[in-house]
Every structure is written in structure tokens, then in C-alpha cells.
Design goal:
alpha/beta; 6-stranded mixed β-sheet; 3-stranded antiparallel β-sheet; 3 helices; binds inosinic acid; binds magnesium ion
């Protein structure tokens, strides 16, 4: 794919993200208040910044694990077929589990991953996504918590990439192509 030049316009500031995560953590903590251990499962790679900030706001006994599922590849189009590339290291049978995703777009990834994790018989399974693009939904899936609803725009930053770039931006920004074809 030839590289098209693009600019990134800030959509959600680092400060707003931090404030929202404090609220989310409070809700999660209340929901899992009586847990003996919460297994927080991050979906690689997009959730790595979010999960790092989220677990540091949780005053609960927490274990962190990761799972990698296929999604966009290096393009901007979502694939409907979801595969598990990297499985959990630990056991979740009988445990409380929180799945952490960067964005819910069509809904295929989180819906498939949730079904997959259910086959491992966790005690309670909840899900959270930092961003939600409801306009793009193809399967009926609702996360238990979402950070921000956003319009149908391609976004980067705070762990989220465009062809593996821009994950290190501290804010969420919208990709705007700056060549003639834009
Ligand atoms: P879904 O299966 O269509 O819900 O896709 C979810 C996955 O697609 C997310 O985990 C992201 O990796 C990726 N994705 C969706 N929207 C965007 C975006 O705007 N920027 C970058 N990645 C995205
Ligand atoms: Mg992803």
C-alpha cells in the first residue's frame, strides 16, 4: 500500500482520558468489590496503554494477562473473521475476568473473544472498551463499560495504531488525509 500523507487532529485529550478512567475504575471497583482476584485481560496490541492506566486506578487484587486476536491487519477495514493468535497464559476458570479492548467498531472482535473466554468458564466475565463507534456495529454486542462514544472516524493514539504507527501519542486523534485524494 503506497503511503498517503496524513495529519492527526486531536479528538480526546490526555487529560479527558485520565479523568474518564478514574470514573470507570470506580464503577469497576464497585462491581467487583467482593472479588478475591480480578483477572484483567488486555487485547493486544491496542489496549496496552489503556490497561496500564486502568489497572493503576483499581484498588483490587488484580492479575494481568493478554490475548491477541486478529482484527484489522495493517489496513483500515475490519475483518469479519476473528482468530485467536495468542492465548492467555493463566487459568480463568472460576475467576472474575475483565476484558479490556481499545475500540469496539463492528463488534466482531469483542463478541468473538467474549464467546471464546466463556468456554473457559470464568465466574464472572465483564468487558470494557475505551472507545465505541456505535454507527459501525454489525453484531449486537454491548460492552459493560465504555469510555467514549465516537463518530465513524479512523482514530489513532493512546495505544491505537494506523499501520502500526502513532500508538505512542498520549491523546486520541483523528486521521485526516492531506493528499489530493482525501
Ligand atoms: P471490530 O472487530 O470491528 O469491533 O474491531 C475492533 C478492532 O479494530 C479494534 O480492536 C481495533 O484494533 C481496530 N479498529 C477499529 N477502529 C479503529 C480505528 O479507528 N483506528 C485503529 N484501529 C481501529
Ligand atoms: Mg484491536
Amino acid at each position: 500500500m503506497p503511503h498517503r500523507p496524513y495529519a492527526i487532529d486531536e479528538m480526546i485529550s490526555a487529560k479527558s482520558i485520565a479523568a474518564r478512567i478514574e470514573d470507570l475504575a470506580r464503577d469497576i471497583q464497585a462491581d467487583f468489590a467482593n472479588t478475591d482476584k480480578l483477572v484483567v485481560v488486555g487485547l493486544l496490541r491496542g489496549s496496552f496503554v489503556f490497561i496500564a492506566d486502568l489497572v493503576r486506578e483499581l484498588d483490587l487484587p488484580v492479575e494481568v494477562d493478554f490475548l491477541e486476536a486478529s482484527s484489522y491487519g495493517d489496513a483500515m477495514e475490519s475483518s469479519r473473521e476473528v482468530r485467536i493468535f495468542k492465548d492467555l497464559r493463566g487459568q480463568i476458570e472460576g475467576r472474575d475476568v475483565l476484558v479490556v479492548e481499545d475500540i469496539i467498531d463492528t463488534g466482531h472482535t469483542l463478541s468473538h473473544v467474549s464467546d471464546y473466554l466463556q468456554t473457559k468458564h470464568p465466574a464472572r466475565l465483564r468487558s470494557i472498551a475505551l472507545l465505541d463507534k456505535p454507527a459501525r456495529r454489525e453484531v449486537d454486542f454491548k460492552a459493560d463499560w465504555t469510555g467514549f462514544e465516537i463518530p465513524d472516524e479512523f482514530v489513532v493514539g493512546y495505544g491505537i495504531d494506523f499501520a502500526q504507527r502513532n500508538r505512542n501519542l498520549p491523546f486520541i486523534g483523528k486521521v485526516r488525509f492531506t493528499d489530493d485524494a482525501a
